[in-house]
Amino acid sequence: MKKIAIIGGGIAGAQAAVELARKNHQIILIEKSDQIGGNIKDYGCKAVDICLKDNLCLVDEIFNEVEEFDNIEKLYQTRVNDFEGEPGSYKLGIEREGEFSSINDLDYIVIATGYTQWSDLETGTPEVDQDERIIWASELEEFFKSRRDHLDQSNKINLGFIPNSAVFIQCNGSRSIKEKAKYCSRICCGYSYRMARVLKHFFPEIEITIFFMDLQEGGYLQELSYQKLEDNDIDYINCKPIKVSSTEENINIFFEDQNKGSKENLKTDLLVLSEGIHAKEVNEKWSQLYNLQLDEYGFLYPIEDEKRTQIYLAGTIKGPKDIAGTLSDSKNVAYKIINEIETGG
Description:
Layout: E1 3-7, H1 11-21, E2 26-30, H2 56-68, E3 72-75, E4 78-84, E5 90-96, E6 99-106, E7 108-111, E8 115-117, H3 127-130, E9 134-136, H4 137-144, E10 165-169, H5 188-202, E11 207-211, H6 226-231, E12 234-237, E13 243-246, E14 251-257, E15 262-268, E16 270-273, E17 277-279, H7 282-290, E18 292-294, E19 300-302, H8 306-309, E20 311-313, H9 323-343
Parallel strand pairs: 1-2, 1-7, 2-3, 7-20, 9-16, 10-11, 10-16, 11-12
Antiparallel strand pairs: 4-5, 5-6, 8-17, 13-14, 14-15, 18-19
Helix pairs in contact: 1-2, 1-9
């Protein structure tokens, strides 16, 4: 039996903890907040008349398993502030509720502290603060949060008004040098598509338009295509809008119609801004503490072979991933550790 610390109680850390706990290893799950779940705990089910495979059902099962294992010790409201030692005898200095202590004799460390969403950063999108009809995807998620069971008909979506139209703008916080994210976050296309389907489910007459830069895979086992959008009465416009403004009556989306070669104005009742995945500020601390490398966007990767250091990275701390990709990566990390232990390296 090995003693393994996992830093981060989101889906990446929880999945790794469960896989390692199944092999009877002693797991210490360290979470800075007062509960496990990370960003995903605030998500709601996107199922409509069919399942759209957002994988939230899998996530709930994982968090339930974390609670069931006796060999997973959970340290809430705990921060790691120091590190020393060598593989097989690592020591973490921690702060918990104002008290400092240490976790000693650790064989492995898994760092799975996830990502931050664009709305938590300085956005450069002042319209969000000025008009309650212009919201982040995470704010729309607040209306979906109660839908852990989409079959429960009491879970209605109440926006405070009935929108006749809605627009989703993709690549907000991604694909932009200005936003320090010249990469695709990989989740937004499928995410917005599912959200649009839920709005259609509750407001059948609503007109929905999604602005794309390009169309990415919609998630695990979920093909997303222009045809699929059209089949569900969702319009798409292949460009990023030039400007957003609002009046008392409407929100105005100014864009260039590439087919017509002209500038157009689309009016809508509701505007939802997608949120790219960004690296957390704490990654810089981890890079110094654990001798890891930051890429140009702030995500982490190992300098030395993880098998030698016995310090592993799991999930979106390494870069953008959807739920399925995060779960898969975390399982892979756990399996690598298990294989090393069982084969002696």
